[in-house]
């Protein structure tokens, strides 16, 4: 068996169900892999973990990966499978504070942003494509632990974050469903990809079969998570007993709906990318993240390990 | 009674009912103006006696009367000095000497207004013990002997009726000690204060005191009281005279017996 | 531990003595209960939502509800903490003796250590993760890094306070530096060493929890950060409470070890 | 600070003496330079990518390049730290004296403080932010919370080590508890108090940076966490370096104040 | 030369060229088996003299020869005892006494194999000083006087040719001090060891020594050497005899003069 250490983007929560199911149902084992899945500390931190070879594979934000490779193209990491076909990047506000589904409603508001947040990183590009005038917008730098409580208290009018985290956390804070306004950046002109499976390029070069097997198993895992979210949530709860299964189920539903089983995926299968769109998103990132122009799409994403399209269709 | 200190059949036990019985059946009288010395084997309760007189400890049985009053709380008419000078290192020598005035009821309210008088008084005392001009120095800038002199000044500043000295010269070398004997002798002569001196040094007791109380081993009580016959003022050369050595020899024998008995 | 004893005025054989001792015994419990009571009342009075500051009753409820994960994660944290603390003990003792060995080494390393100490260890954890992956190892190392400094400083201080006369006695016999170190330096610094363990162990907890928060699948730190991201604030506080309890328990253990191992220092005049 | 002096064998009037003193003086610089050299060589030898562990040369380059933000943020952090530290000084002194006042209070509060100390302050920051908003206030409070403990403990220890004879002298004069406290207790605990400031100030840095990382628009903590998310690792390390420098500088300042204010303690026999 | 200790025209300055000149032109000889005492005003360089003899300090000028060898590093043929007993509190009294054996080259390699012999020897010494059966106790379980006795045993365990005592009885009370005088007197008689005793107490010096060296004030040198005429063995009652007091009086006068000169 080939040992593979895999790092998630975040803790064991609903959206990680696909990975955990692949492990629990023996899909990895069937491919001759001995996979350890570790929690992560943000979809950005997964990238250096993989590039240094501490983890052979991981799950991280492809936009950050582009930025990472742009800083230093010699880094040994690339994406091999797209999981969030649309990024979960969102600005979530409260209707009672004057924020609606319309991005323009953010003008003149106070927005809370954790500096390491992936959604906030796209703000520059997003405000351009959505035509927001930010001259009256104040941005407060607030950490993850206080993001939703501050929004709930009304200290800020909207916050940046992953839709499925922020919305559910807001509900946990006692904010009513119909008070929450989610502005998904991908639905408002920001044409980016989201989180992808990463691999250490040295590992991929030495064990191409292992990587292929891993992705095959993963496709099955995600298919199961889409088909049977309850089973997915059970796998998550096995690893963290303190979670609330209803909330995780809802979180998984949201991820499936908004990010994983998107219309494009339904048509073209799970896991692949459109190289042109990826190239375009690199152009977008030049605006939002100030890329130097050191990377091209084919350096970032390597589709050669993907299983066939049939194996990648989601139920 | 005309006794300044009157101790009658006192028992004092430390640390509860089954603790150490430090003194038992202790009876002792000191008159106003006396210079009394207390000698005895180590651990016999000499320091305990001091604390009984000053009201730092209250006996379980017996009577302690100081200046006509039953002692039930610390009496503020005494000055004390210990072997360790216990000067506060963050105050100058002068400020150290003035410390009792900040505490004793009688003086604390007058201190601010009459500070100049008090300082003058302290400087008088400093001159008396041979420390003129050292008031502004810190204690740690003085030698051990000088600190002990300042300590005496502190014990005297509030003009106590009674001066209690617990082995004040134990840590000093022989010559400095003799110098301070003379200082104390002169203080006693000049100020007429009553002094009780606890000491291990029989020659010190014989040279300075009018009365020497010899204590038994623990539990301590007074086994013998000597009148010291030498005329005042006394000179250091007294110590090389035969009668002096005979007195010391006798005291020595008595304490040796008291130790044996223990 | 106080400047005033019950001597003045009261006879030394006093009945209330036994009573008073038991007050001192009871005080920690009374104060703890008092703290919880005030907290509870404050929460009720101010109508704090439990996602901001849960009442103690709610926290105890969370402890009962989540007892199984709390227990497992506590054990994990205790394990990493103890391991990191163990390393700090060995390493701190060694470095402390090494530094105390020479004035130059001391002068050279001391500022570096201060500088390192002023760096928040959270910043170091991601680097550790990159080298060692997540889980037990970075937590152990963080616990080590955060807790070895007081041990080093104390051991070096112990060496510095050797009486010159003791040294003279040995040197006059022809003792070499290493002899003095082994016969006097090491035992002499033991009370200081054991004294530092109490501080070191609490710091070790801080370190391992810190690292678990950022990089671990298990442990109280992980549990709390996951609960935090779920806004299960009572569970966060339950974790904090467990930490406080573990911290106090280990502190008491270290205090006990200190008393056992260095009884001579407390009974002799050498203690400060 | 070492058990061996240059006495044996060498004549007491020795030429190399001046030289040796300057070695001790130079040691901090030499060791620092040595550390950077080894680090640089290690990075080159292991071919570390700068996104993981940048070489010192790269860090210095980042310091020059980003000097303006580094400088501004450093000032902000220094400001919050100093403020929190100032509060800790006042509060720690007050609580220390209060605790040292009575055995019962001491027994009651001490375990609570240990428990609180075993709680990582990161966990407390979110609560502070919710109460006080982001920015300077939570940073100041975190710096305060993390740094007041050693001050309290030291002040209480100072009170506990008053010579009973000094107390007896005052008590025999009829001094009340408050007199003894003011005349002896407070000044007596000053060397311990000033001694604790050195530790407290480094902890205060840790606290304010911690809080800035979670919730602030300015400060080194905020700068480092944004740099981290930009993969600008040299800037992160530049921030850490600045922190270390500020920490050492404040430590030195506190050590200087300690020497100035409590000279008597070092010259008298009271300093152990 | 048959002198065990030969000090000739020695200058010793602390702390560099412009530091304190502690002794200057110091010349002194002690023969094997002698009991020498050194007295002098405080700070005159008595402890410095001890350190010169033991090789803890090397003089800037002059010659120090001990047992026929130029002293250039610590000589290991001496036993030392100070005023402060410096017992290691983490070792039992017996282990403290055995400490020198773990250090002196000659013994350290033999210690493990011959431990029993050495322990027997230590117990002999303990008996000699009146501490039989206290070997297993820790130093802090002993009184000050008992610690000082143990300290003497430690100084003697490696059978030094020379015993250096620097005010070993300064901190003790008068009675304990007299007891230890007798212990030392008997040790000297029984073991034939050469002893140099530094003291402030002129009676101690007169009672114990064969020769008394009087030092001048700093910078110290020997101003007078007395032969003590009293026959051995001496009894404590000697101290109440006239000749004894005359000797003490004379020494007293000499030191007072030396102090004045300073
Ligand atoms: N605070 C205390 N608690 C318990 N026992 C005490 C206390 N103080 C003194 N003792 C005991 O009481 C006895 C008498 O002590 P005290 O200090 O009065 O003797 P002393 O004659 O002054 O001794 P020394 O000559 O050594 O100064 C001793 O046996 C001592 O152990
Ligand atoms: N390590 C030192 N550095 C500088 N000066 C010293 C040192 N040790 C002693 N001195 C000085 O040298 C002089 C002689 O000191 P020494 O200790 O030999 O005197 P002493 O006769 O033993 O005094 P005492 O009777 O107080 O023990 C003193 O003036 C002292 O201040
Ligand atoms: Mg006493
Ligand atoms: Mg001396």
TrEMBL record, chains B, E:
Boundaries of every ABC transporter domain copy: 5-242
Keyword terms of this UniProt record: ATP-binding, Nucleotide-binding, Transport
Gene Ontology MF, one: ATP binding
CDD domains (alphabetical): ABC_NrtD_SsuB_transporters (cd03293)
PANTHER family membership: ALIPHATIC SULFONATES IMPORT ATP-BINDING PROTEIN SSUB (PTHR42788:SF13), TAURINE IMPORT ATP-BINDING PROTEIN-RELATED (PTHR42788)
Similarity comment text for this entry: Belongs to the ABC transporter superfamily.
Protein name: NitT/TauT family transport system ATP-binding protein
Annotated organism of origin: Pseudorhizobium tarimense
Lineage: Bacteria, Pseudomonadati, Pseudomonadota, Alphaproteobacteria, Hyphomicrobiales
UniProtKB/TrEMBL annotation, chains C, D:
Regions that span the bilayer: 29-48, 78-100, 112-134, 140-162, 191-211, 231-257
Subcellular location(s) of the protein: Cell membrane
Pfam families with a match to the protein in the record: BPD_transp_1 (PF00528)
Keywords: Cell membrane, Membrane, Transmembrane, Transmembrane helix, Transport
InterPro entries: MetI-like, MetI-like_sf
UniProt keyword NADP, yes or no: no
Domain ABC transmembrane type-1 per the UniProt entry, residue ranges: 74-254
Membrane topology category: Multi-pass membrane protein
Domain of life: Bacteria
Record's keyword annotation contains Cell membrane: yes
UniProt similarity note: Belongs to the binding-protein-dependent transport system permease family.
Protein name: NitT/TauT family transport system permease protein
